[in-house]
Every structure is written in C-alpha cells, then in structure tokens.
Amino acid sequence: MTHSPVIVALDYPTAEGALDLARRLDPADCRLKVGKELYTRAGPALLAQLHTLGFDVFLDLKFHDIPNTVSRAVSVAADLGVWMVNVHASCGRRAMTQAADTLAQFSAPPELIAVTVLTSFSQAEFEEVHHGERLEERVSMLAALTQDCGLDGVVCSPHEVPRLRAERGLNFGLVTPGVRPVGSDAGDQTRIMTPEQAIAAGSSYLVIGRPITQASDPLQALHQINLTLGAD
Ligand SMILES: O=c1ccn([C@@H]2O[C@H](COP(=O)(O)O)[C@@H](O)[C@H]2O)c(=O)[nH]1
C-alpha cells in the first residue's frame, strides 16, 4: 500500500515496455493505470503480471455503453482483481446505477468512478460538441449524477477540483489526469496543473503518464514528484 497519490499511466504499445518499467518501480511509490492502448495489446494476462508484482491497478477503459453491457464489463473487471475501474458518466443514470449495484455484490469490489469531461478538452473544443454549454457546468452536473448513482468518484481536471470538492464533499474521489510538473510538455492536455497545485486544490489521486514514462529517467521523475508532494 502506497501513501503516494500518483497513478502512473502505463501508455505503452506492448506488454514488454510496460513490464520493463513496472519491474523497476516499487508498489510503495505509486499505483499503475492500464488504458486502452496497452489493454488492447496485452489484456488480462498483463493485469495478472502487474498484480503479481504487487501493484494496485486502475483499469482505465472508460466504458460507455448500454446499462447491461456496462454493468457486465465492470463485473469482469472486478473478477480480474483491479483496484479501480471506470465508465463515462454520460452513459447515464441507469448504466451507472446498474454498474454500482453489480459491484456491490463483490466482497472486495474495485473503486468505481466516472469520467466527466476529458482533460484534453478546452472550452472552445467542448462547445463544438456541446453547443452553448459551459464545460465546468457539465462537469459539475455529471459529478452530481455520478454521486447520486452510488459511485465512488469522478475523473476530472484539477481545474474543476475546488468546485467539486465543495459540492461533493470530502469522501468523494476526485481522480485527476492533466497533471504536468513544471517544465514538462502539455502535449494534448489543455486543463492542466502541477502535481502540487492539484493536491492543494483537493485531488485524491493524480494520473501522470508521459512526464514519467517518457522521462530520460522515469524512476527519478516519479521520485521528484513524490518528493514535492511529501509522499516519498
Ligand atoms: O480525462 C481524462 C481521462 C483519462 N486520461 C488518461 O490519463 C492519462 C494521462 O496521460 P498523460 O501522458 O499524463 O497525459 C492517459 O492515459 C489518458 O488516457 C486523461 O488524460 N484525461
């Protein structure tokens, strides 16, 4: 069990690349996230290997489908022993409630969280797909719905954290990608903050990928982040 809020996003095209880093990391220093790229390649066998290494694993497949499909998918994720799994909040009340009810039947269910608005979206890009809506209003509305459906938290940008913490309370998980240490490239992310700012704002967990995985020394990059957060 780690005291660090960092979840390292293992966005690699092969199991070998991901395992090469995972074997050098210590589960005392971080959790790991497996997303669509790596899971599409390596599937449940890779999850089993990461569990054998001692890591808590967030399976980030962002299920977005009809209620029956979403609840069955999170049930399989629970069977695979992951620590956290997610859906899109915009799949709606019935899908989220059914997923939460399904997981409640497990003795040690994974945390179930819902994506609000992807951290890559700027307000302008958001308006192209949600005409006339304010991004932060939608995040707030989806977080309220997610909590009402009995889920454990949401994925949002650190920018939305102060408002959501105030609206949803201290026990609601706020998992934030869009985290960039000073000097690192934003890449395709737009709503970003530094690790220290995100934790000060009230984030529960920080999802950090490329600033660690593409660093010349990924272990040192993680160590430096944990140090600045007092989690070393
Ligand atoms: O809104 C979201 C939801 C998920 N992600 C995922 O987090 C990581 C971030 O990686 P970086 O390299 O630190 O940008 C990545 O796996 C995304 O799929 C997100 O960024 N935003």
Automatic annotation (TrEMBL):
Catalytic activity: orotidine 5'-phosphate + H(+) = UMP + CO2
InterPro entries, per database record: Aldolase_TIM, OMPdecase, OMPdecase_AS, OMPdecase_bac, OMPdeCOase_dom, RibuloseP-bd_barrel
Statement: the UniProt record of this protein carries the keyword Lyase: yes
Superkingdom per UniProt: Bacteria
Listed Gene3D superfamilies: Aldolase class I
Orotidine 5'-phosphate decarboxylase domain sequence ranges: 5-225
Protein name as catalogued: Orotidine 5'-phosphate decarboxylase
